[in-house]
Amino acid sequence: MFMDWMANTAALLINDWFYLTIIALVFWTIDKNIGFNLLVIFSISVYINGFLQFTIPSAETSELSSGSFEFIFPPKEVQLASAFWGFLIPEISDRRYTALACSIIFFTSFVSLLYGERSIQDIIVAILLGIFVVYIVYRSMDWIGSVPEPIIFSFSLVLPSSLLLLFPEGAHYAGLLLGGGVGYSFELIKNRMIFSKHLWKKAAAAATGLVGLLLIVYLESLLSQTTLLQFLHTAFIGLWITLLLPMLSIKLGLHEQAGSIRNNNL
């Protein structure tokens, strides 16, 4: 029974939609900047893992004469957990969260060793890759803060498109970067959502966003599975998270707009 619970928990922690749901809720109710950075970390981490797995010829797991496993490839779930939860350690700066994040990373690594037939070196490389992704994002944040907004917007268009051309199999995650980057740029420049102080309004905005997200996800089943449509579909998901839902929540009065007359009168 404990082993079943552990397997089910691990399955939840490695599910892409679990991470996207957390990212969306953070963006809509807690902190837009952190939510966007988590979206970038999620997209880049999974994209890099898929790209390396596609380009490095090491598909089979085999045992050596010594009984140890041959190096296969860093497991996606460990790399993503290390990058995603690890990024929040300096952002939250709380010992309890640090312990929780390390526990999640350790748990994911342990389950990967137990069920995924991974070696210790696979786990170590995955954790190092996750740390590298976090480093890239932090360095990018420093760069973004020092360049004009038009350059940032152009970069949010060029980078995802280049990633799509480089590795079409990563279209889902390149699309998320495109939609998220473009949406966040417009959110900062034009929409400028600020969170309501009322908890029920935050909950209503989150519920509205999740319903819309489910409808967009369902839309994929109606589309043909081509690379371009996958790219555009996930770009729409990124736009929904970073721009469309914030715009809708302002229209519905669930959140406010910075600089608006109504907000200034509060």
UniProtKB/TrEMBL annotation:
Keyword vocabulary terms for this entry: Membrane, Transmembrane, Transmembrane helix
Parts of the chain that traverse the membrane: 12-30, 36-56, 97-114, 120-138, 203-219, 231-254
Name recorded for this polypeptide: PAP2 superfamily protein
Taxonomic lineage of the native organism: Bacteria, Bacillati, Bacillota, Bacilli, Bacillales
